[in-house]
Write a structure and sequence with these properties.
The protein is mainly α. The protein contains 6 helices and no strands. It has helices at residues 15-37, 40-63, 67-72, 75-86, 93-108, 121-127. α2 (40-63) packs antiparallel against α4, α4 packs across α5 (93-108) and α4 (75-86) runs parallel beside α6. The longest helix is centred in the middle third of the chain and has 24 residues, at 40-63. The chain is globular, with a radius of gyration of 16 Å.
Length: 128
């Protein structure tokens, strides 16, 4: 009999692998959004993704932690893309930038980083 401390499956899952799966799952959503709303969705996704990666890198530099590991886990990119997909396609790009910066810098890193945030960073950025 094998006892475990939690009901979760144990396996070779990692944060990076999970985030890749989420990014792959977003492909149909992104495709339909572009089909319905046009190329402005792609611009929002690009701006959000770049802002999220830059914010993550700067915060990790300020915290004295590995920038490479933080960027490779994909969590900042997932947060940024989820936020961009929740915003209306007519939203100005500055709204996307402010939302992503708030999500990454305040909600994610103010409380300690990945796994320690009190709220979903993308949805908190959406509220801002």
């Amino acid at each position: 009999m094998n006892l475990s401390s939690s009901p979760h499956l144990q396996g070779n899952a990692s944060v990076g692998r999970t985030m890749i799966m989420v990014l792959l799952a977003l492909i149909p959503v992104i495709s339909v959004s572009v089909w319905l709303f046009g190329s402005t969705v792609l611009m929002q996704l690009l701006v959000a993704g770049l802002t999220g990666l830059l914010a993550e890198a700067l915060v990790m530099l300020l915290r004295g932690r590995s920038v490479t590991l933080a960027l490779l886990d994909g969590s900042a990119l997932v947060t940024a893309l989820l936020l961009a997909l929740c915003l209306p396609p007519t939203a100005p790009l500055w709204v996307v930038i402010v939302g992503v910066l708030f999500a990454i810098v305040v909600v994610k890193h103010l409380y300690g980083g990945l796994g320690y945030n009190l709220f979903n960073p993308a949805m908190a950025g959406y509220l801002v």
